[in-house]
Amino acid sequence: MPSIIIPAYNEGQVIERCLDAVLADAKPGEFEIVVVCNGCKDDTAERARRYGDRVTVVETPVGSKIGALNLGDDHATRFPRFYVDADIQLSTQAIREVAALLTDDSPILVAAPSAIVAYEDRPLLVRSF
Q: What is the pLDDT of residue 103?
């Protein structure tokens, strides 16, 4: 099953929401999750470590998303790879369905689930955008 790389720069307010969604229905060991805290000045790493051995936390003082993605790749061991921003909620089932498309014998090289953007609790100006 897949590796999920989550670059996180000061994402303490949202990292648990992201990880809770990914792990909601996951079987033990089903996903390899690498959270790369890059240049964080908040408690992102501490919050991600609360998930124990279900999540690997890597820290770097360099605040670079590209650097975080590359560092995550260095620590990940499985394929396919999912690159998920820390403020995104991606369900366990969505990961399973996309991973099923990316088998070794599949001609599909890249896939993503359909996005659903929730604007209900946003101000009118944001919703109109």
A: 86
